[in-house]
Amino acid sequence: MGNLIWIGALVTLLGLAGLVWCIFSVQKARKEELEDDAMKARLQRVVAINMGALFLSAIGLMMVVIGILLS
Fold first, then answer.
1. Is 50:21 a contact under the CB 8 Å cutoff?
2. Residue-wise pLDDT tens digits, 11-51
3. Does residue 62 surpass a pLDDT of 90?
4. pLDDT at residue 12, as a whole number
5. Coil, strand or helix: which one is 71?
6. 13-20 long-range CB contacts below 8 Å, 24 or more apart?
7. Are 64 and 12 in contact (CB under 8 A)?
8. Separation CA 61–CA 65 (nearest Å)
C-alpha cells in the first residue's frame, strides 16, 4: 500500500501543477488586455483545465488517504 500513497502524492502534485498553470495563464491573459470575446474564450479554456486539475488533485488525495487507511 506504500506504492498507492506515493502514486497518489504524484497525482496530487500533477493536479496542483495544473492549478498553478491556470493561475499564471489567467494573469498573462489579464496583462494582454484582450477584447471581451477573446478573453471569454481564453477563460473558458482555462476553467475547463482548472476543473480537470482540481479533479486530479482530489483523486490523488483520495488515493493517499486510502493508502494510509489500508497500510
1. no
2. 999 999 999 999 999 999 999 988 889 899 999 999 999 99
3. yes
4. 97
5. coil
6. 13/60, 14/56, 14/60, 15/53, 15/54, 15/55, 15/56, 15/57, 15/58, 15/59, 15/60, 16/53, 16/57, 17/53, 18/49, 18/50, 18/52, 18/53, 18/56, 18/57, 19/50, 19/53, 19/54, 19/57
7. yes
8. 6
Total residues belonging to the chain: 71
Q: Please name the amino acid found at residue 66.
A: I
Predicted model pTM: 0.85
Q: Residue 69: pLDDT above 90?
A: yes
Distance CA 45, CA 27 (A): 14
